[in-house]
Amino acid sequence: MSDENIFLFVPNIIGYARIILAIISFYFMPSNYIVACTCYVTSALLDAVDGHAARYFNQSSRFGGMLDQLTDRCGTMGLVAVLGHFYPKYIFLFILSMCIDVACHWIFLHTSILQGKTNHKFVDMSDNPIMSIYYSNKMVLFIMCCGNEAFYASLYLLYFTEGPLIAGLGLFKIILFLSAPICLGKTIISLIHCVVASRNLAIIDLNERKDLKKKAF
């Protein structure tokens, strides 16, 4: 039996499609919000599809998990970078948002891999109740992730149009107001990622130092 080609796993091929769509979205973001938004939203929706594909075809992989996580982070980062250009008055907040999102998720994913975990969503159920709810309840995770994306996407769309009016208020402005608390909550959870990962990484360091001392003697 020949070795499997991880790079050609179905969920990873979907991941490549997500990257292409994200790049197209970035290109059109400054000029064509319809094309940009269509590609960006499609890329985001495929995030759920690749997970189902990984389970259906039994093709979960560390590479796939890393590809998925980096595509998520870079996709949001690209959109927020454009928002910084559109709304220069709030550039500090956008930069802070990007740093928190990328840094906190990266250290959490990296630490999970060092722990020998194959899924970047691993949490310590007994020690981190907030993280437990966030990752064990699919509806909560869906609402938080969609709400976070909806906040930035509506802010992007508002630069071009308010959308159809509902009770005298633009649709995109309504979405912005409703999703703002969710975005803030998602940012807090990202910081929790950082705290949890830092603690776990420190434990890994201590265990490795103990092993080195034992070998020294």
General description of the model:
The protein is mainly alpha-helical and 217 residues long. It has one domain: Four Helix Bundle (Hemerythrin (Met), subunit A), CATH 1.20.120. 77% of the residues lie in helices and 2% in strands. It has a two-stranded antiparallel sheet with strand order 1-2. A hairpin with a 2-residue loop joins strand 1 and strand 2. The protein is globular and about 75 Å long.
Layout of strands and helices, then pairs:
Blueprint: H1 10-28, H2 33-56, H3 62-86, H4 91-114, H5 129-136, H6 138-158, E1 165-166, E2 169-170, H7 171-216
Antiparallel strand pairs: 1-2
Helix pairs in contact: 1-2, 1-3, 3-4, 3-6, 4-7, 5-6, 6-7
